[in-house]
Design a protein that fits this description.
Helix content: 10-25%
Number of strands: 18
CATH architecture of the largest domain: 4-Layer Sandwich
Structural class: alpha/beta
CATH superfamily of the largest domain: Ribonuclease Z/Hydroxyacylglutathione hydrolase-like
Distance between the termini: 23 Å
Strand content: 15-25%
Number of domains: 2
CATH class of the largest domain: Alpha Beta
Radius of gyration: 21 Å
Order of helices and strands: EEEEEHEEEEEHEHEHEEHEHEHEHE
Largest sheet: 6 strands, mixed
Length: 331
């Protein structure tokens, strides 16, 4: 951070926004005392693993999840000029709108699609937009999430009615809870990693999601964070398992076979390419920074399709990138 200089955005310890008065750290790898430390959500690649400061700007749910996942006791605080807006990514996820001379919107990971268990992210007018680019190439376009949820439920229901067990391998925070919501009412069982996150997200859920060891019927559905959890599935059930997953990467040819899955559904907790372009258009910024994923491709598309200045925010060791404009020079 360069507190004496004019505002700038750099990617170093997370994303650093320096207004000249207050340094902001967006999803830093280590928190810094004296800065405004913002945590967008509780996925591990966005959580601080170091730093003495435990007071952070985040939602209550993310504070709870982050404390569980890191073993650190975070405390939520507010900061002048910082607003948290629903990101629609996972429970507790938030975008950060920072108003300090200019309006800067940091999306973190986000999703603008209507889902069964989360409200979608909504665009807001901003001067500077810092957006994720996970699926920032035109070939990554997803089907309607609600319709796909119905397809998933039908496929699983057919297996269950035929006494064929289904074993989902999913991320324990976000993906697990979404697929459990889609399949609620079916005989669901989760491994301990998923159940620990279920309790933080749902509260009491033992009445509709059991532990793996409790499964007794062949027509059971297992929600697990790793294939290793198959060892806990009762032997008589284990012999006929169908393996499945949900991921945005499932739109890519060969993903299912490469992962050794019987079925892979492109249900994502991120925006697809069209969603990203539409979000940028509606936010109508004067400049966009792209981070995480296909940053070069998305920045080029934003410039070509929308006529908005855009560039990848590349990681660097120190200082402001050569040629990088200061925030106060944007119209």
């Amino acid at each position: 951070m360069h507190r004496g200089s004019k505002p700038a955005v750099v990617r170093r310890n997370g994303i650093e926004l320096d207004t000249g008065d207050v340094p902001y750290l967006l999803d830093p790898a280590r928190t810094v005392e004296g800065a405004v430390n913002v945590i967008s959500h509780a996925h591990s690649d966005h959580l601080p693993r170091g730093g003495r400061e435990t007071r952070v700007v985040s939602t209550d749910k993310t504070i709870e999840l982050a404390s569980h996942r890191t073993g650190r006791r975070f405390t939520g605080i507010s900061a002048p000029g910082v607003s948290l807006l629903g990101a629609g990514h996972i429970p507790g996820s938030a975008m950060a709108l920072i108003e300090d001379g200019k309006r800067v919107l940091y999306t973190g990971d986000f999703c603008t699609r209507r889902k069964l268990y989360l409200e979608p992210a909504k665009p807001v007018r901003t001067d500077i937009l810092i957006t994720e680019a996970t699926y920032g190439r035109p070939e990554y376009v997803f089907p309607d999430a609600v319709e796909l949820s119905g397809v998933i439920r039908d496929w699983v229901s057919d297996a269950v009615s035929s006494s064929i067990p289904v074993f989902f391998v999913v991320y324990p925070l976000g993906k697990a809870q979404e697929i459990e919501t889609v399949l609620r009412g079916l005989p669901l069982f989760a491994d301990e990693d998923v159940q620990a996150h279920n309790r933080l997200v749902f509260g009491s859920c033992d009445d509709w999601i059991g532990s793996i060891q409790e499964a007794k019927d062949a027509g059971s559905v297992f929600i697990c964070s790793s294939r290793r959890s198959i060892a806990a599935v009762p032997g008589a059930i284990r012999r006929r398992l169908l393996f499945a997953t949900v991921s945005g990467w499932a739109v890519a040819p060969g993903f299912k076979n490469a992962g050794g899955f019987d079925e892979a559904f492109p249900l994502s907790d991120h925006c697809d390419y069209n969603d990203l372009i539409d979000f940028v258009r509606k936010c109508n910024p004067s400049h966009v920074y792209t981070v995480h994923g296909f940053t070069e491709s998305l920045a080029a598309s934003i410039a070509d399709e929308l006529g908005i200045e855009a560039e990848p925010l590349k990681r660097h060791a120190s200082g402001r990138k050569r040629g990088q404009r200061r925030i106060d020079t944007y119209p």
